[in-house]
Amino acid sequence: MTMKKTIVWFREDFRVSDNPALFTAVANGEVLPVYINDINTPTDFLPGAASKVWLHHALNDLNNSLDGCLHVFSGNPLDILTKLISTYKITDVHWNRCYDKYQIARDIQIKKSLCNLGANVTSFNGHLLWEPWEILKSDKTQYKVFTPYYRSGCLKAPSPRIPLGKPQNIIYINSKNSLQVDNLDLLPKIRWDIKALEGWDVSENGAHKHLDEFLANKIDQYKIGRDFPGTQLTSRLSPYLHFGQISVHTVWHKVKDLSLVSDEANRFMSELGWREFSYYLLFHFPELYKTNWQSKFNNFPWRLNHKDLKAWQSGNTGIPIVDAGMRELWQTGFMHNRVRMIVASFLTKNLLIDWRRGASWFLDTLFDADIANNSGGWQWVAGCGADAQPYFRIFNPVTQGEKFDPEGIYIKKYVPELKNLPLKYIYAPWLASNEILSKAGVVLGNNYPLPIVDLANSRNLALSLYKAL
Ligand SMILES: Cc1cc2nc3c(=O)[nH]c(=O)nc-3n(C[C@H](O)[C@H](O)[C@H](O)COP(=O)(O)OP(=O)(O)OC[C@H]3O[C@@H](n4cnc5c(N)ncnc54)[C@H](O)[C@@H]3O)c2cc1C
Prior knowledge:
The protein is α/β, with parallel strands linked by helices.
């Protein structure tokens, strides 16, 4: 067999293990691993500040795993790939597929152009358990509701492929033509990232350690534990999955191989199913990131009060569980799923601020910011998505706090101003008497805000507006 010379173009798959594009290229001959900072990316699809930090470390880690041979470029991908093909007599180009509308259109165009130059271009599935076009109803239309999508579609389709392992003995194409990762300027000028990254090991190895720890110590409490933000009983794999530092296939099969055929394991796997569903929706409805899935919401009378939005973003709404969540996000680049739902419900249903404002704040501040999961999550909470939460289900942030942070651990951690309040009042400090507040050192409106909105009135207003739709 003649040795091929293959460019492997890394995009959201910063790993060597179970990377089909890389694995196949190594099996066929010499390899030129490439990352391109695509300067044509439209604003809506650019990484936010937190994502850029993660990307910086993910690229450095990938470069180490590839023996320092990752070639980094910045510019127009087609121009860069074309030049590399002619300089190094490249025969093949490989990549793992991406699913947002910008990257799909770009990749189709690039594939066409490179094929015209005589290169063989092959794309692979490295990111999803099931391709969105493979899962259809018996009448060949797409699913719109999660449960039948997952149970009758995904679980009845052929099983996700077995992970490929690490390619051995990579032969690199010799080239010194590369930027350094530092040249991409991904780190912030004010170094907030150092503190935020404490506790994260942004590497492929870190992703595997995270998974192993979750499987050893947490999965058997997942079904119930996943709802309590004060305990860390979820996997926290989302940034690793987003950046492809671990493949979803690896996660899926490791859970299955442990024979954890339990409610806990099934629940965890169905959350991976939600990730699939978000990508499915984005693929079949490419405007998901900015357009209501249910068009009747196009007339919803959102309000934009900048002061309220700022209070929400900075964790100063006067509603403790909301503030705890928004501060967790700001300080750590992460937020627990239960709290994501609470803060999103508060923004859209109590403050009546358009979900797109919240989604864009999340995209800028989350390490796991992901256009599919984020748009899916926001549209679900706002009620305008596919299979969304019914409009009349408006989270009460006080009872949510009581139920899911019953000892106030989470609130006290992120809203330490309230830590001396009796538990009874920690979820709604405005209900405490002046005497109780002063004993706990709390002066509402001074060292902790009064609620920026009346929860009952705003709930009723939202209900009437939603009903009118
Ligand atoms: C308003 C809102 C915004 C969100 N934005 C994002 C986002 O930008 N990026 C992101 O990855 N997730 C997002 N989610 C989904 C979910 O909150 C996170 O995936 C989860 O909190 C990550 O923590 P974990 O890895 O510990 O999850 P686990 O509970 O351990 O779940 C394992 C994996 O399953 C996937 N998953 C879990 N829950 C969901 C879900 N509801 N929807 C889609 N996939 C899911 C994730 O990849 C996650 O890593 C959002 C949810 C909401 C309500």
